[in-house]
Structure formats: structure tokens, C-alpha cells
Write a structure and sequence with these properties.
Region (Disordered): 1-26, 91-115
Number of domains: 2
Domain Excalibur calcium-binding: 76-112
Structural class: mainly alpha
Radius of gyration: 30 Å
Strand order of the largest sheet: 1-2
Distance between the termini: 78 Å
Strand content: under 5%
Largest sheet: 2 strands, antiparallel
Keywords: Membrane, Transmembrane, Transmembrane helix
Helix content: 25-40%
Biased composition (Basic residues): 1-13
Transmembrane segments: 24-44
Oligomer: single chain
Length: 115
């Protein structure tokens, strides 16, 4: 005769135990806290800000978030290729070097990134 197990119903499947979580979550948190704290401390000094800018600027320029060269009074460009080569693109209406004939769509932004 078959034995009847009192804790299991006929046809019920046994549940697997819940997955064990590793104790590494605090390590990730500590790393993030240390990174943010370290950058914040570094940004307090002039040398620290210069170091951060030196590392962030190439990425920001590539993404079009920052100029490699700020437009200066007296700038006059033959076209957008020299502006881009100098790292001063895009030029906005009212800034040195901006001309309406360089603004192809008339939106106030000349030498926009080529897409």
C-alpha cells in the first residue's frame, strides 16, 4: 500500500527554496558612496576641478555638450567646416562668429552637428 505523506497533497509539486541573495549589495553601495564622495572632495580644490574638467571635457565635446574652444570676440569664419575644426561649433545667435548665412534652417543655431 502507498504511504500517504501528511504535508503534501496528491499531485502538488514541491516549491524550491527562495534564492539566496549574496552579501555584495553593501559592497556596491560602498563603492558608489566612495566614488561620489571622492569626486566631491576633489572638486573642492582648484587643481581638483581642473583634473575633473580635463577628463570630462573630451567626452562632452564629442557629445556636443561643450565647446573645445569658446567663441571669441572678433571671430569670423568662412564657413562651418573651419568652425567645427576649431571646436567652436555650434554657434548661437548673438555669439561671436555667428552669421545668418551659416544658419541653414534659420533657427538661431549655425554649424549644427552633422547627423
Amino acid at each position: 500500500m502507498a504511504r500517504h505523506h501528511p504535508t503534501r497533497r496528491h499531485g502538488a509539486t514541491r516549491r524550491s527554496p527562495p534564492p539566496q541573495r549574496g552579501g555584495g549589495g553593501w559592497l556596491v553601495g560602498a563603492a558608489l558612496f566612495g566614488t561620489v564622495g571622492g569626486i566631491g572632495t576633489l572638486a573642492l580644490s582648484e587643481d581638483g576641478r581642473a583634473a575633473i574638467t580635463a577628463r570630462v571635457k573630451p567626452v562632452a565635446v564629442t557629445m556636443g555638450l561643450m565647446w573645445a574652444r569658446t567663441p571669441r570676440a572678433g571671430d569670423h569664419w568662412r564657413g562651418c567646416d573651419p568652425v567645427r575644426a576649431a571646436g567652436s561649433a555650434p554657434l548661437y545667435r548673438g555669439e561671436p562668429g555667428y552669421r545668418e548665412d551659416m544658419d541653414g534652417d534659420g533657427d538661431g543655431v549655425a554649424c549644427e552637428p552633422i547627423q
